[in-house]
Amino acid sequence: MILRSFFRPSSILFLKSRNLQTFFVSHSTISVDRKNTRVGLKIRAVHRFNNRSKAGSMSSSSVVEQVVTENGARQVELLTSYEDDHGGIIVEMKEAMVSEVFVSLLRTSMLYWRQQGKKGIWIKLPIEFVNLVEPAVKEGFWYHHAEPKYLMLVYWIPETVNTLPVNATHRVGIGAFVMNDKREVLVVQEKNGKFRGTGMWKFPTGVVDEGEDICMGAIREVKEETGIDAEFVEVLAFRQSHKSFFDKSDLFFMCMLRPLSFNIEKQESEIEAAEWMPIDEYAAQPFVQQHGLLRYMINIGLAKVDKEYAGFSPVPTTSAFSNHPSYLYLNSHDLNRSLSSACDQYCCFLKDNLSFQFEQKSSGPGARSSHAITVVGQNAYVFGGEHTPRVPVDNKLHVLNLESLTWSVADATGDIPPPRVGVTMAAVGHTIYVFGGRDAAHNELNELYSFSTCTNKWTLLSSGDGPANRSYHSMTADDDCLYVFGGCGVDGRLNDLWAFDANNQMWVRFPSPGEKCRGRGGPGLAVSGGKIWVVYGFGGEELDDVHCFDPITGEWTQVETTGEKPTPRSVFSTVGIEGYIFIHGGEVDPSDLGHLGAGKFAREVFALDTETRVWKRWEDDLDSGDHHPGARGWCAFSGAQGDEKKGLLVYGGNSDSNDRLDDIFFFTPYFG
């Protein structure tokens, strides 16, 4: 018998197996307690070495027998293993083994691990090693969990309370609330399940796959069942239930998605019918009326659509336990009331000072100009730009965490935009939009890309249609739309105004402002009081006119302004805050070298009251040294919030010395 020969002096048996480790044991004795399936082995000294013996006719179930030397030392074979992070041992069986050999090795290994003070033992048995399951169970192991390709067995060594984690206790499901601009919801009838043949319409639902994020699972289920492409918005609510699927608990996440397409192609294998249904018609179904959960889902979804409810938005992050990207779902609506931009560092500072320089904690995109920045949640996203005039730097999407002030690069997929300068970027909800710019060959561009901060995926939304090719234009956004104005086109400077409806994924061209509003590059663009404002810019010379467009009446107005008017300028930073349009810096005297040189830049902050049409030179603590951005233009800028104060975030730009800058400032006006 193998077990007998295993412990007989002078007998040698060879094994070619990666599942074994060889130990040198000095002056050891072995005893076997078969009743309690424990092996007794007194070990004075253990020295590990690799066994690389080969034999001419070895089977995969062979074992290296103990070799007893003249001084009484012997070799002991153990199952190959590695330690986990909690004082336990993990054995992953890689090669076949007869059960008798396995039991002998397991007993010896368990004794060694016990004397080493190990706690839990995990044995991962591939499905083809089913012959080892029963022997392991007889040695005291029990089932922990099973997957299609393996069974995991466990054993607790110490005579203390077993603290091994239990098997997964919950299944994760999603339900998708998808509504179009007609207040119709996406609903399906299923071919299988409890609603089969009932005529019941329901929201698309499904189970999140292993390794799949909730937001991605919701997008996938909607696409699979209805053919509709959708963008994840928020987790609106979740429900926990018990004794559900094979007695497991169930977590069900109600998710809101924004449709990106509208033509339904139902899944033939599982879906009987799918359609866009008026929400009132869906709610009127008797089954919906009788079930509180479904009524809650309708009410929550409508509250979100009507902007009276804030759910949980996914924010990309990593944990202390893994470098793999994951998502933190949080109420970004309330979070955005505080910039999360190192608030602990500067919130008190802002009470007495109007601008603050961020102390970046890691290296980022570096110095650049003609780039773009926007803020979503606790992150600022930077794209495009140049370090050398007219030479695009890269097409990476750089991410600054405004809480830790550390940089990273988004692990982006999809239709990644090529490098460009003179590009604009704005966000609607959790989606970033990038439009236009100029490539390395100095070609003007007109592609519109979206980037989902939930999935890190780029999508090319339009190319060739919509606004004409351009760079050094301006773009801003409200809750539903992007607005693009002006810029440098293929045939000259432009003065057209466009809107992109983020909900319906379509461009709309507004009426022309006429000759009074000259074509221009580098203008200011802001939304205030329900109107779209065009401020200054460069139209062959620096301009100082102001125009506004009323989307309701479709009319343009040239605004006569008074007060402390800024000098004519372009390529300045702009933001609309509480009825004011703030501008900072900008080029007031262009270089004779054009874009290759540096002109003269301004450093002050001005504000235009859009009600009174009066300009004011804003007190911005100009002499605060490092905490003032100073003179610059061609910056990346975005609206942001900090310490419940709205403000202007400014990154980089060009200086009077023609050196590109890499610092970041946050300016917040005081309205006291």
UniProtKB/TrEMBL annotation:
Superkingdom, natural source: Eukaryota
**Coiled coil spans:** none
Check the record and name the Gene3D superfamilies matching this protein.
Answer: 3.40.630.30, Kelch-type beta propeller, Nucleoside Triphosphate Pyrophosphohydrolase
CDD domains documented for this protein? NUDIX_ASFGF2_Nudt6 (cd04670)
**UniProt keyword annotation of Metal-binding present:** yes
Task: Tell me one Pfam family matched here.
Answer: Kelch_KLHDC2_KLHL20_DRC7
Q: Which keywords does the record carry?
A: Hydrolase, Metal-binding
User: Which InterPro entries has this protein been placed in?
Assistant: Kelch-typ_b-propeller (IPR015915), NUDIX_hydrolase-like_dom_sf (IPR015797), Nudix_hydrolase6-like (IPR003293), NUDIX_hydrolase_CS (IPR020084), NUDIX_hydrolase_dom (IPR000086), Pre-Nudix (IPR040618)
List residues of the Nudix hydrolase domain.
169-301
One Gene Ontology MF term: NADH pyrophosphatase activity
Asked if Metal-binding is a keyword of the record, the answer is yes
Q: Which PANTHER family match?
A: NUDIX HYDROLASE 2, NUDIX HYDROLASE RELATED
Q: Which family does it belong to?
A: Belongs to the Nudix hydrolase family.
Name by which UniProt lists this protein: Nudix hydrolase domain-containing protein
Name the source organism: Kingdonia uniflora
Q: What is the lineage of its organism?
A: Eukaryota, Viridiplantae, Streptophyta, Embryophyta, Tracheophyta
